[in-house]
Amino acid sequence: MAAFKYKAISRDGANVTGVVEAYDEFEAVEKIKETCRIVTSISEATAAAGFLQKEIVPSKISQKSLALLCSQFSIILTAGLPVVRAVELIAVQTADKQLKKLLSQVAEDVAGGYSLAQSFENKGGKLLPSTLIETLRAGEESGTLEIAFQKLHVYYDRSYKVKAKVRSAMMYPIFLCVLAVAVIAFIMGFTMPVFTDMFSSMDIDMPLLTRALIGFSRFCGRSWPLLLAVAAGLIIGLKYYSATEAGRMRLSRLQLRLPALGKVAVMKGASQLANTMSTMLAAGLPVIRSVAATARVMDNYYMGTRLSSVVVGLEEGRRLGDCLRECGCFPDMLVEMASVGEESGSLEETLDTISTYYDSEVTVATERALSMIQPAITVAMGAIIGVLVIALYLPMFSMYNGM
C-alpha cells in the first residue's frame, strides 16, 4: 500500500489535511470521503528527495491523444463491437507508445471482468484526467458508453484547439523576447569589447553613459558564472515555490490579475468550467459530482480551489448560480447563464452554449492582449538597443567635435 497526502473540506466546511494509506489514488479518495465532503487535492507521499532530485513519473496523455482515443471508442462501440474488442483494436492502431501500453493493460482488466472505467482507474490513474474516468463511469451506469465517448471527444478536441490557439499566438512575442536578449548579449559580449579597446588606445574622454555601459560589460564578463548561478537559483526557487500550497495559490491569483493576460486566464477558466461541466452532465453525472470533478481539473489552481467550495454550498441545498457568484473569480455572464440554466432545467445545454462563447472569447482576448504586448516589446527592444548604440558612438562624436 502507498501513502497519499490530501487536502479536503470536512463535513462542517473546514479545510483539513492528512495522510491516508491505500492501494491507489482512487481507493484513497473513497476512504477520505468517508469523513470529508470533498477532496480538493491528493498526491502520493514520497520520501524526501535531494535538492535537485525529482521523482520521475510518466507524463499525462495529451488532450490531442485523448480526443482521438475517445473518437475511436465512440465509432467502434456505435458499430456494435464489445468493449474488450474495442480496447484491443485501438491498442493495435494507436501510435502513442504510452497509450498503447496502457490500453493493453486495460484490455486484460476488462477481459477479467472489470468495467472499462474501473480498468482505466486501476491502470491509468496517473495518466488520465479524472473527468474521463468519471464520465465513463456515468456512461456505463446509464448504458450510454458510446455517447459518453462522443461527448468526451468533443470536449477534448475543443480544449486542445483552444490551448493550441493560445500557444500559437504566444510564439511571436516569445520570439521577440529571445531575439532581444540575443542581440543585447551579442552587443555586450562581442561589440562592446572591441569599442572598449579602441577607446582605451585613443585615450578618449568617454561620457558617463559610455563609462557605465563599459563597466557593466566588464562586470558581466568577469562575473558571468555568478550571474548564471543567480539566474538558475531564481528559476529553481520559483519552481519549488510554485509547488507549495501558498505558492500555487498566489501565483494562480496573480495570473488572473495580470494586465491584458489576466483576462485571457479568466476567459480560459470560464471556458474550461462550462465545457467540462456540460460534458459530464451530458454523460449523466449529477451536478455535485460534476462540479467536484471539474474543480480537480481546472488549470488555474485558485479557480479550482474556489470551485471546490461550491460543492459544500450545493450539498447544503443552495443554488449553483449563487455559489458561483460567491467565488468571485468567474465572469458575471457565466454565473447568470448558469442560474438561468438551473432554473429552466436546461443546465447542460446552457453550459454547452456558453462554453462555445467563451472558447471564442479566449481567442479574442488573446489577440487583444498580444496587440498590446507586441508593440510594447518592440518599443522596449528598440529603446534598449538604441541606448546601447548611442553609448558606443557618443565618444566618437565627442572626438569629431573636438577636432
Secondary-structure blueprint:
Blueprint: E1 2-10, E2 15-22, H1 25-32, E3 36-44, H2 63-78, H3 83-93, H4 97-111, H5 116-124, H6 130-142, H7 145-202, H8 208-242, H9 245-257, H10 261-282, H11 287-297, H12 301-315, H13 320-327, H14 332-344, H15 347-402
Antiparallel strand pairs: 1-2, 1-3
Helix pairs in contact: 2-3, 2-7, 3-4, 4-5, 5-6, 6-7, 7-8, 7-10, 7-15, 9-10, 10-11, 10-15, 11-12, 12-13, 13-14, 14-15
Q: If you had to describe this structure to a student in words, what would you say it looks like?
A:
One of its GO terms (cellular component) is plasma membrane. This is Type II secretion system F family protein. InterPro entries: GspF/PilC, T2SS_GspF_dom, T2SS_GspF_sf. This protein is mainly α and 403 residues long. The chain has three domains: 2-44; 63-157, Receptor-associated Protein (Up-down Bundle), CATH 1.20.81.30; 158-403, Up-down Bundle (Receptor-associated Protein). 75% of the residues lie in helices and 6% in strands. The protein contains 15 helices and three strands. It has helices at residues 25-32, 63-78, 83-93, 97-111, 116-124, 130-142, 145-202, 208-242, 245-257, 261-282, 287-297, 301-315, 320-327, 332-344, 347-402; strands at 2-10, 15-22, 36-44. It has a three-stranded antiparallel β-sheet with strand order 2-1-3. Helix 3 runs antiparallel to helix 4, helix 4 crosses helix 5 (116-124) and helix 14 (332-344) packs antiparallel against helix 15. The longest helix has 58 residues, at 145-202. The chain is elongated and about 90 Å long. It starts with a strand and ends with a helix.
